[in-house]
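subagent[fold] <- orchestrator: predict structure for attached chain, return tokens only, no commentary.
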Amino acid sequence: MSLSKQLLAKKNRPAVVTDLVDVVRQEVADKKGMSGAGLKAGYATATKVMPDLVRKAVRRLLPDAAVALDPFWDRFVAEGGSDFGAYLAQHGAQVSAALLAITDARAEASSKEALKKVYRALRGKADTHVQAALPRLGATLQKHAAREA
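subagent[fold] -> orchestrator:
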């Protein structure tokens, strides 16, 4: 069964969303330096405007993100991988591009100008942040997926 079907299954999806919200919070909390301060400020601003923003965003983005990760999962399983987070990190540029294409399209289509402004301000470092999150993201997704391709 595909990764996306497993993650989006009615019985799995609520736990997947909750765990991915935690991934976002942990990743933001772990950021250091000027870039980290900017990310934390943007996150704080966005969540002040919409306190449930991260949960809503995860729920909305999960279907497209899961489908975008299907080919990576399929290859990971076919190659007999044991750590999906490490596998995603090894393919960081391609995984990041696939995921950021989704968020770029969603941000551009948003009617909320404040959120668009925050996203544009943070987008320059997004690839770096996404790639840094891949080990944690992959481990979280693997926890919810069976190893059948």
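orchestrator: received. Logging for downstream: The chain has eight helices and no strands. The radius of gyration is 15 Å.
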